[in-house]
Specification:
There is one protein chain. This protein has 441 residues and is mostly helical. It has 22 helices and no strands. It is globular. The N terminus is likely disordered.
Length: 441
């Protein structure tokens, strides 16, 4: 059982590990939330749905860069440390945001502007692919047993806060600028804000301390040091790697469905004004962010599997009726209630998925073990969510997407039921010795 000292949450580490994550995901989600305004800037005039499909395709390409980022930056985090990786990822994100902010339009240089947009998205994918692992491992390793579920839940608090900042800025711009001004130059403002914010976070992350768990591992045997962060070593834990892919699939697809895609869905399908759809998403996501630490703390008491199973059941059963009802939402309150219901279900996954994955691997391959399988699953399911949804809509069978999400949740549910509980996993040799100490008395 945890002592009072062990149960203390290291807030400085939690803040340092998550605040950069906030800026990373602000930039990542701003692309999605402002796509309706800049889609026409990079592609020929025509069908608005076709323009959104093009920008959604570039959005998905960023996800397919994430496995590369997961491999390179996960390896970097295992070899050079969590702090070094966190600093590098936020640097890449700052550069990508700046590129989008200054990208030329189709009317000025033709498709060259779309090429710049694509390069920026590839940089974002590289950065976020490593950010998830570095943030997950840092938050988990920097926290004592008995509080890891609670502390690691701030990863999705920060991710959601980043999206909230993006949506909040969108609401302000919608209320202070005309539609024409937003499509002309206003959409560039959030990317300038993202680039400047990332520069500030770079300074903050430079002041972070390395995690004690990694510091202990860094003093290990030369043989282990040589194998740190290698794919060869990861293959020795292939079962855990495949487990990460499978348990991520349904959760990440549901998360992106109820966050990045839903604002467009409320506007394009339900017919709500863009400003109303943005307000619905903002307030629902705010409540969602507040739920994460509560669910994470609950997992520290009852275990990780019960929450994952609750999401799996809810995602399988509730997705189709919820999305169908959202497509007919007539105003703010019905849409808010339905969206929040979906996000409550998704909380069973989001609040603890980072700590579960980190608890599956040993320290010398933990960042790569979290990053690469997660990034692969995200590329296949999360990154394609918006594109697949729009493809179903364009084909006139939008409801097919709802069944697709439900089926992926059902697939992950099977994994949740069969996987082992990870809550009591020792993260270091020191923790193993502490657990064994009572047996020697």
């Amino acid at each position: 059982m945890s002592t009072p000292t062990q149960a203390r949450t290291p807030w400085r580490a939690v803040l340092g590990g998550s605040v950069g994550n906030l800026v990373e995901w602000y930039d990542w989600f701003v692309y999605a939330s402002f796509a309706t305004y800049f889609a026409s800037a990079f592609f020929p005039k025509g069908n608005p749905t076709a323009q959104l499909l093009n920008t959604a395709g570039i959005f998905a390409v960023g996800f397919f860069m994430r496995p590369v980022g997961g491999w390179l930056l996960g390896r970097y985090a295992d070899r050079r440390g969590r702090k070094a990786a966190l600093t590098l990822t936020v640097t890449l994100m700052s550069g990508s945001a700046l590129l989008i902010a200054v990208a030329p339009t189709y009317d000025s240089v033709g498709y060259f502007g779309a090429v710049v947009l694509l390069i920026a998205r590839l940089m974002q994918g590289l950065s976020v692919g490593g950010e998830y692992a570095a943030s997950s491992t840092y938050l988990t390793e920097a926290t004592p047993p008995g509080r890891r579920g609670f502390a690691s839940s701030f990863q999705y608090v920060s991710m959601t806060a980043g999206q909230l900042l993006g949506l909040g800025l969108q609401i302000v711009l919608q209320r202070t600028m005309s539609e024409e001004a937003l499509k002309s130059y206003g959409w560039r403002i959030p990317f300038v804000v993202g680039a400047l914010s990332a520069a500030v976070i770079f300074y903050l992350r430079r002041r972070l301390l390395e995690t004690p768990v990694y510091a202990e591992e860094a003093k290990g045997s030369p043989a282990i040091r040589h194998e740190r962060g290698t794919v060869r070593e990861l293959l020795r834990h292939r079962r855990e790697a495949f487990l990460v892919i499978a348990l991520t699939a349904g959760g990440t697809l549901a998360y992106y469905t109820y966050t990045t895609y839903l604002t467009k869905y409320l506007s394009n399908t339900a017919g709500l004004p863009k400003s109303t759809a943005s307000l619905v998403s903002f307030w629902a996501l705010l409540v969602f962010a507040l739920l994460q630490p509560l669910a994470g703390a609950l997992s520290d008491r009852i275990g990780r599997r019960p929450l994952l199973i609750a999401f799996g059941v809810g995602g399988t059963v509730a997705t189709v009726p919820l999305m169908t009802a959202l497509g007919h939402a007539s105003g703010f309150w019905p849409a808010f209630g339905l969206m929040l219901t979906g996000l409550v279900v998704v909380t069973g996954y989001t609040s603890i998925n980072a700590v579960v994955k980190a608890e599956l691997f040993p320290t010398h391959v933990r960042a790569l073990g979290v990053a690469l399988p997660y990034a692969i699953s995200n590329a296949l399911f999360g990154g394609t969510a918006e594109y697949v949804a729009l493809w179903f809509k364009k084909g006139g069978v939008e409801s097919g997407y709802f069944w697709y999400v439900a089926a992926c949740a059902a697939m992950s549910l099977v994994v949740y039921v069969r996987m082992r509980e990870t809550r009591d996993t020792a993260m270091s040799r020191r923790e193993l010795a502490t657990e064994a100490a009572p047996a020697r008395v």
